[in-house]
Inverse folding.
């Protein structure tokens, strides 16, 4: 064990053998404390500015519930040579949010997703209640407890909080990272223009940018893992078009403000694995529209975490969802199960695509120069006439020649005798 001193005056005995490793440092266990861990930075990451940022963050006193919602720094730690890292709450059972969104509706049903969605919003609301901003709110920084035997099942914890966008009066400690598919249009345009998150003029991240990323994550959660700005080719419309179509990336669509769930573009639709947008309750649809459509020009129009908490709680309390014969749970306002419709639609497109691929394969094969023998089954005989051998073609002449020779030899013998 190695001894570290906290800014609080507390002494921590920390196991030098890491639990996990990352680009900035290592996560290590703390002796005698099962509910906390230490993050020890690499030497080059122990900067004065990082120390200032963490020293500001530990001023916030978190409740027990808040400590389960956010791995917020609890204490800054030092070794003999100086600043080394910080202490934070420990996660025991959690998967990152990509696992949740990638799971089928049979694995994580709609009711569980509503609880998860509410808890994500509650965690973000906690950060915002501090007057602070998450910044890089991508699914890998959102962890969910999927152990249904655990009392804390479906609880959500935000991680990587030392990268958060922290403000203290006029002093701002910016978040310098971000995943493109979760960055809002106002920042996308600046990134497209050649600027970077680490150096572009402030302000960059804000509560409004968090609200955009939160809505993207919620959309993926409720729409079978589909990103709200993801596109697909509409095969029926594409066949009628002369020019070829390219599928734009979600980040490009975010920058341009185009989503196939809100706008129509010829030859473009949403992915087949997503249900129709009307699958969602009207209260959800309104908040998504405000965030992605109205919020494109006016970021302040985006729905807050507390607004999402309210509409999700209403659905949970009213139990506005039912189960279809196949076991899918869906919102009650739909007459038929949208998941069954989605699966049927996806299967039909898949069958059509396979039939078209088979037809194209036959067409290509038919256009190739071939030899008949290559397409003749092994159990069929080749009945075409064969070219005769020399003996076969001259057999009669040989017979006549032999007979003539025999006659000549007989005549010669007869006269000599």
């Amino acid at each position: 064990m190695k001894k570290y001193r906290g800014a609080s005056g507390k002494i921590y005995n920390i196991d030098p053998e890491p639990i996990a490793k990352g680009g900035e440092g290592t996560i290590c266990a703390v002796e005698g404390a099962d509910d906390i861990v230490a993050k020890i930075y690499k030497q080059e990451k122990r900067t004065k500015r990082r120390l200032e940022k963490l020293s500001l963050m530990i001023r916030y006193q978190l409740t027990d519930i808040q400590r389960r919602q956010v791995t917020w720094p609890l204490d800054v730690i030092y070794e003999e040579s100086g600043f080394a890292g910080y202490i934070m709450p420990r996660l025991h059972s959690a998967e990152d949010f990509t696992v949740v969104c990638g799971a089928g509706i049979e694995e994580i049903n709609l009711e569980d997703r509503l609880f998860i969605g509410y808890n994500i919003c509650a965690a973000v609301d906690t950060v915002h209640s501090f007057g602070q901003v998450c910044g890089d709110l991508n699914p890998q920084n959102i962890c969910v407890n999927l152990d249904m035997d655990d009392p804390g099942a479906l609880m959500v914890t935000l991680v990587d909080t030392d990268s958060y966008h922290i403000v203290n009066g006029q002093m701002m400690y910016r978040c310098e990272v971000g995943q493109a598919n979760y960055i809002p249009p106002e920042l996308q345009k600046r990134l497209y223009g050649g600027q970077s998150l680490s150096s572009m003029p402030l302000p960059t991240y804000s509560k409004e940018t968090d609200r955009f990323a939160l809505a993207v994550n919620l959309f993926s959660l409720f729409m079978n893992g589909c990103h709200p700005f993801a596109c697909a080719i509409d095969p029926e419309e594409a066949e009628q078009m002369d020019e070829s179509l390219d599928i734009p990336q979600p980040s490009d669509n975010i920058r341009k403000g185009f989503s196939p769930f809100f706008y129509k573009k010829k030859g473009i639709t949403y992915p087949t694995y997503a249900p129709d947008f009307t699958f969602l309750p009207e209260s959800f649809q309104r908040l998504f529209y405000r965030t992605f459509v109205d919020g494109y020009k006016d970021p302040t129009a985006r729905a807050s975490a507390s607004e999402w908490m309210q509409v999700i709680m209403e659905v949970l309390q009213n139990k506005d969802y039912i189960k279809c014969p196949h076991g899918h749970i869906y919102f009650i306002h739909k007459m038929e199960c949208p998941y069954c419709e989605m699966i049927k639609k996806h299967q039909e497109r898949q069958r059509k695509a396979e039939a078209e691929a088979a037809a194209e394969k036959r067409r290509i094969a038919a256009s190739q120069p071939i030899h008949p023998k290559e397409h003749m089954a092994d159990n069929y005989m080749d009945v075409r006439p064969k070219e005769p051998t020399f003996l076969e073609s001259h057999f009669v002449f040989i017979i006549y020649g032999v007979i003539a020779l025999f006659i000549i030899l007989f005549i010669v013998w007869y006269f000599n005798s």
User: Anything to note?
Assistant: The longest helix spans residues 338-366. The mean pLDDT is 89. DSSP finds 13 helices and 16 strands in the chain.
